[in-house]
């Protein structure tokens, strides 16, 4: 790819093609937890076009035991290995490089490369983990075919899995056995995987639309295998959906998935052998919430769908990361929307965008969806690359329409199958299929920051002239002071005085399709003439463009529009806007509050509305979303205003909340059906509002005591803990004891303790850190305790005395030496520190500065530097 410049950054502009091709790799593992030996045979072919460069391979902290070229051992002066790279000068023709190295899985706390999790041995190679296993041109544009032999003691490692198709097994005598795997598809090293250990499986066979018989397996340790059935069903649904919606089939004889308790990220799409964080596989009604089930389905789909958007067509270099991640998030979101409620999925995504991605785009770590430089690629697995990247694909879909979009995808897959592609090639395929010039659209990839649309209306009653003036603006971000106008598809609808949509298109301002205008310039004016009444405009239906809207509605207009608007997403959004206006003082607080309250009354009275949608309308914008919408964040007052608004609304509707809570009880017992999940969502929303008004928390206590599904138990426990109910401690104790053996459920109560909305919760976090529950080497546990505290507990993390920041900084220091990616993630929770009011801003800076000189990993050092840069 390219080497870092003197400033420590790798630059997109420095890309050069590989000097050596590697058509074939053979690996042989002698697996054991303390020490594993890896023999590698690389077929090397120099690329004459690259001018005979010396052979340089990546290999980090490998113990090199033997090295040979074409079967002849290399003398010590024929190669150099410095612990990072292997150089073999003087090679100028095709040859086979054979190396033997020793690595130490049990000592690997980074969980990158080959590592141990419980009794399993597993790998994680994306982005640059393979170089910790063996020597390789560890870059995504080098795509060999692979043959992998695994050898191990049969009692410790009865199951031996690798990428591709199984070729056979053999007994080696002396308690040893081996398995051979072959991956016939050209595959970069970041998609390499093996898994070994006492795994059991759930399995299913199906025939693909192309007529291939495929075995689907989900593997887990014996105690967990009973909770894999739901994930197996999700694999099948994803496979069928990709056949139907994108015409993409599966291309191996087996699809294996392994669940691991120790895993840094969510999951990994290794070719034919996905490895998952157990939290995105294991589920049953007693231990997983409804939200867990939906997340499992969507992550399983995400990884499965990568088989085309990521594996068959991979990346030329890591700057293209969103080419696979944004596209695959778009695809998994469409999958979930097709299978369940499209509007609810949109609401879920927009909450994540507004609460987290917009904050990232406005903070110290803002970066383009295709960055032009990085110091550490692991720091770019961000909401911007993933979620904003998916939004950009959605913008493209909106611009060209579904038919042309599908044609563009077909063309992209056809033109790039087996290749390492770039975003330009993705756009070229869509440009060819749609006939549209996408050059301005491409700015979405290079320009960081969330665009803002300021819309002002003018109505002249005498002439009937009505204009909407739309100005676009993207604020500066680190390293990008000036922004250019983006191509933004803006959806709109006008509602007349009679409540009916105005169907006349604007006379000027060119709407490209009914209700859609493509903004290309800093200012557009849409003009209608002859309107007999002032209409009410609504914008950005289904959140078709990932932008912020600055509108000057009055509270009454918003409330009226919330009733008229046909788009369900927007009906929700207009209520969010009312709430935000009431909370931030941009609307008259009293009229906004009573308008919101009236709207919620109607929703709660409407038994025909989807209860889950009603629940979403009850859930006001969260702290992060509100904090992102203000210039200076006054933490306590923001939280207090939000609390008092919820309290006022709850008081307004006690009877309604009670009625819905009880009326939905029967439906809520109907297992995992959509109707039952919806019923539980609204019941739990009602429960939270009712509990805040009842010091005895009687309803929550009863729901907790009734046991039942995890969705209900956990929601009740949250109410008891977060509203300081009299029974909270006893409830926590019984929950803790009931699930002490289950790390995933343990993470749930730890998350509740860490997010109790009170400055004192810091002490509970400290107590857990000193308890046997703390496991610094388990990323899920770290996220449950420290991640939830930093990201989900405004009053605890942002304590006025800085105690929350200091706690986090101290933990980051320790974690950095164990698992740099986990430490760097936590450091990211300081991304918006500059917008905090005093005393928090000073305290956050002090906590960050205390880390200077102490951090060892490039990951954390890169983030700290960016956080403190002016
Ligand atoms: N490609 C994985 C996914 O499906 C994530 C891998 C993350 N790896 C990392 N080093 N951050 O999104
Ligand atoms: Zn992904």
From TrEMBL:
| Class of enzymatic activity (EC top level) | hydrolase
Q: Name one GO molecular function term.
A: zinc ion binding
Family matches, as InterPro entries: Aminopeptidase_N-like_N (IPR045357), Aminopeptidase_N-like_N_sf (IPR042097), PepN_Ig-like_sf (IPR038438), Peptidase_M1 (IPR001930), Peptidase_M1_dom (IPR014782), Peptidase_M1_pepN (IPR012779), Peptidase_M1_pepN_C (IPR024601), Peptidase_M1_pepN_C_sf (IPR037144)
Location of the Peptidase M1 alanyl aminopeptidase C-terminal domain: 556-868
- Per UniProt, residues of the Aminopeptidase N-like N-terminal domain are 97-191
- Top-level taxon of origin: Bacteria
* SUPFAM superfamilies xref list: Leukotriene A4 hydrolase N-terminal domain, Metalloproteases ('zincins'), catalytic domain
Q: Give the keywords, sorted.
A: Aminopeptidase, Hydrolase, Metal-binding, Metalloprotease, Protease, Zinc
Q: Which reactions fall under this protein's catalytic activity?
A: Release of an N-terminal amino acid, Xaa-|-Yaa- from a peptide, amide or arylamide. Xaa is preferably Ala, but may be most amino acids including Pro (slow action). When a terminal hydrophobic residue is followed by a prolyl residue, the two may be released as an intact Xaa-Pro dipeptide
In this chain the Peptidase M1 membrane alanine aminopeptidase domain maps to: 230-443
Q: Tell me which residues make up the Peptidase M1 alanyl aminopeptidase Ig-like fold domain.
A: 449-550
What cofactor does this chain's UniProt record say it requires?
A: Zn(2+)
Asked if Protease is a keyword of the record, the answer is yes
Q: Which GO terms describe its biological process?
A: proteolysis
Tell me which PANTHER family the record gives.
Answer: PUROMYCIN-SENSITIVE AMINOPEPTIDASE
Q: Which family does it belong to?
A: Belongs to the peptidase M1 family.
Q: What is this protein called?
A: Aminopeptidase N
Question: From which organism does this entry originate?
Answer: Arenimonas terrae
């Amino acid at each position: 790819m390219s080497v870092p410049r003197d400033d420590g950054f790798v630059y997109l502009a420095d890309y050069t093609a590989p000097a050596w091709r590697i058509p074939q790799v053979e690996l042989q593992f002698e697996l054991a937890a303390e020490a594993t030996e890896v023999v590698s045979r690389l077929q090397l072919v120099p690329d004459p076009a690259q001018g005979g460069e010396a052979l340089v391979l990546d290999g980090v902290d490998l113990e090199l035991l033997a090295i040979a070229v074409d079967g002849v051992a290399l003398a010590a002066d024929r190669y150099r290995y410095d612990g990072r790279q292997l150089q073999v000068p003087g090679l100028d023709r095709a040859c086979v490089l054979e190396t033997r190295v020793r690595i130490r899985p049990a000592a690997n706390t980074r969980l990158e490369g080959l590592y141990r999790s419980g009794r399993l041995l597993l790998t994680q190679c994306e982005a640059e983990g393979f170089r910790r296993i063996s020597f390789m041109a560890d870059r995504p544009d080098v795509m060999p075919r692979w043959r992998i032999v695994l050898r191990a003691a049969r009692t410790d490692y009865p199951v031996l899995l690798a990428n591709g198709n199984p070729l056979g097994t053999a007994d080696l005598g002396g308690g040893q056995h081996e398995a051979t795997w072959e991956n016939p598809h050209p595959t970069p090293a970041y998609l390499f995987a093996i898994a070994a250990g006492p795994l059991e499986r759930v399995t299913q066979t199906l025939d693909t639309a192309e007529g291939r018989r495929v075995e689907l397996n989900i593997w887990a340790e014996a105690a967990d295998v009973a909770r894999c059935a739901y994930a197996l069903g999700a694999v099948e649904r994803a496979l069928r959906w990709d056949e139907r919606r994108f015409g993409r089939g599966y291309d191996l004889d087996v699809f294996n998935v392994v669940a691991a308790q120790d895993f840094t990220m969510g999951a990994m799409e290794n070719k034919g052998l996905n490895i998952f964080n157990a939290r995105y596989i294991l589920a049953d009604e007693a231990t997983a919430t409804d939200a867990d089930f939906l997340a499992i389905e969507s992550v399983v789909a995400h990884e499965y769908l990568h088989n085309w958007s990521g594996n068959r067509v991979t990346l030329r270099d890591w700057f293209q990361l969103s080419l696979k991640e944004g596209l695959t998030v778009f695809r998994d979101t469409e999958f979930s929307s097709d299978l369940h409620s499209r509007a609810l999925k949109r609401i879920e995504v927009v909450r994540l965008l507004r609460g987290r991605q917009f904050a990232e785009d406005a903070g110290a770590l803002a970066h383009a969806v295709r960055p032009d430089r990085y110091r550490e690629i692991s720091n770019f697995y961000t909401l911007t690359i993933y979620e904003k990247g998916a939004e950009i694909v959605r913008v493209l879909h909106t611009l060209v329409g579904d038919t042309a979009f599908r044609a563009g995808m077909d063309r992209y897959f056809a033109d790039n199958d087996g290749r390492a592609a770039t975003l330009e090639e993705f756009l070229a395929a869509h440009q060819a299929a749609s006939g549209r010039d996408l050059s301005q659209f491409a700015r979405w990839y290079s320009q960081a920051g969330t665009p803002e649309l300021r819309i002002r209306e003018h109505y002249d009653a005498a002439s009937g002239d009505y204009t909407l003036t739309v100005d676009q603006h993207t604020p500066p971000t680190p390293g990008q002071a000036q922004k250019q106008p983006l191509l933004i598809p803006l959806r709109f609808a006008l509602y007349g005085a009679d409540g009916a949509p105005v169907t006349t298109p604007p006379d000027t301002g060119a709407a490209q399709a009914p209700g859609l205008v493509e903004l290309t310039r800093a200012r557009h004016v849409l003009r209608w003439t002859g309107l007999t009444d002032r209409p009410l405009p609504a914008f950005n239906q289904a959140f078709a463009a990932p932008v912020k809207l600055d509108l000057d509605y009055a509270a009454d207009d918003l409330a009226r529009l919330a009733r008229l608007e046909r788009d369900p997403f927007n009906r929700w959004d207009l209520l969010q806007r009312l709430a935000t206006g009431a909370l931030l003082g941009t609307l008259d607080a009293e009229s906004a509050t009573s308008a919101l309250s009236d709207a919620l009354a109607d929703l709660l009275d409407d038994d025909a509305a989807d209860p889950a949608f009603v629940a979403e309308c009850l859930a006001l914008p969260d702290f992060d979303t509100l904090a992102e919408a203000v210039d200076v964040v006054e933490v306590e007052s923001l939280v207090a205003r939000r609390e008092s608004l919820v309290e006022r609304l709850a008081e307004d509707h006690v009877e309604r909340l009670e009625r819905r809570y009880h009326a939905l009880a029967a439906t809520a017992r109907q297992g995992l059906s959509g109707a039952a999940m919806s019923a539980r969502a609204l019941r739990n929303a009602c429960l939270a509002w009712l509990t805040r008004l009842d010091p005895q928390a009687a309803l929550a206590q009863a729901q907790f005591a009734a046991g039942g599904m995890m969705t209900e138990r956990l929601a009740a426990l949250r109410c008891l803990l977060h509203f300081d109910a009299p029974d909270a401690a006893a409830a926590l104790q019984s929950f803790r004891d009931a699930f002490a053996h289950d790390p995933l459920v343990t993470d749930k109560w730890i998350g509740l303790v860490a997010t109790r909305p009170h400055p004192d919760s810091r002490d509970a976090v400290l107590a857990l850190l000193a308890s046997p529950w703390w496991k610094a080497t388990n990323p899920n546990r770290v996220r449950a305790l420290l991640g939830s505290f930093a990201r989900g507990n405004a009053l605890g993390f942002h304590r006025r005395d800085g105690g929350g920041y200091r706690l986090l900084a101290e933990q980051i220091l320790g974690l950095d030496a164990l698992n740099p990616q986990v430490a760097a993630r936590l450091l990211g929770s300081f991304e918006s520190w500059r917008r905090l009011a005093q005393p928090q801003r000073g305290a956050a800076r002090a906590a960050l500065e205390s880390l200077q000189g102490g951090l060892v990993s490039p990951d954390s050092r890169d983030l700290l530097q960016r956080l403190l840069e002016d």
